[in-house]
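A brief tutorial aside. Many learners find it easier to grasp structure tokens once they have seen a single protein encoded end to end. The record that follows does exactly this for GroES-like protein. Read the sequence first, then the structure, and try to relate runs of similar tokens to stretches of the chain.
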Amino acid sequence: MQAYTYISEGKFELVEKEKPIIIHERDAIVKVTLASICSSDIHIKHGSVPRAVPGITVGHEMVGIVESVGAKVTHVKPGDRVTVNVETFCGECFFCKKGFVNNCTDENGGWALGCRIDGGQAEYVRVPFADQGLNKIPDRVTDRQALLAGDVLATGFWAAKISEIKEEDTVLIIGAGPTGICTLLCVMLKKPKRIIVCEKDENRVRFIKEHYSDVWTVTPNVCEEFVRKHSEHGGADVVIEAAGADSTFRLAWECARPNAVVTVVALYNQAQTLPLPDMYGKNLTFKTGGVDGCDCEEILCLIAEGKLNTEPLITHTYPLEKIEEAYELFENKRDGVMKVAVECEKRHD
């Protein structure tokens, strides 16, 4: 089968690999119908994810059809259309039972697919702990509608969930890339008084204005002043940092009111400074880290009910054999790209 593979730092390549097989009785083999490219894949390419293993198939955002299951898999069966969770988790350890599935203590726990074990930018993928990591797609939901549910939409849902958003709040989201937009969609479910999105890219600002007309936008250079002017208590009640640029971590806490929640979901290329003397007395609560992606079933229900719609984010579609072109487009942010769908099924022309 064809599989897009991490060869070495700076180099991915589409190569032929053996089709995966069931290794453990809790595994499933999924025929991938659609995959997507994530910024984390770009981080792997450029060596910013030290735990990523050269030789693995990349990709951790995908949907497909279950082809076979191990003897202890009961939640899905061959023929089921499924989303694949960004994380693998056993469901049994201390962290899993607390809902902190990103910190699953199993050797395959946390972000493994497309990082430490073969992922899904391929024709097939092996999914460990299939009962936890696969969710059936409702009949009335298409593959494209479900594509982002297991990763970037799960991240946005988790960010909104942990940010303690109330209806009287002003919420600032920094970054209007795919993670920022998915976070926006999930914040909108909380119905806060005001949502402000900070973004410098004109195409992304235009995207917000076109699809989410009630959301306010601002550029980074005037963000702090704008937020103070349009909030009641000297800053945003909740700030969600989804950009990951060198300047956006500081901007996040500067725009927060005293005693606010600052949630950081961005992945940075380099270490950020926490200047405690500068922020002393603001009494901020920081929430950081990788997504606990265990709400996919609820997310799929919200999609089926028409309450979440990420399909407008999929701006481009490529076949697997042209995935290098898709990466070039996505990495260089050309042609107004937001997310790319990669068709992984082998075509029979």
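Self-check: The CA atoms of residues 247 and 272 lie 9 Å apart. If you spotted this yourself, you are ready for the next section.
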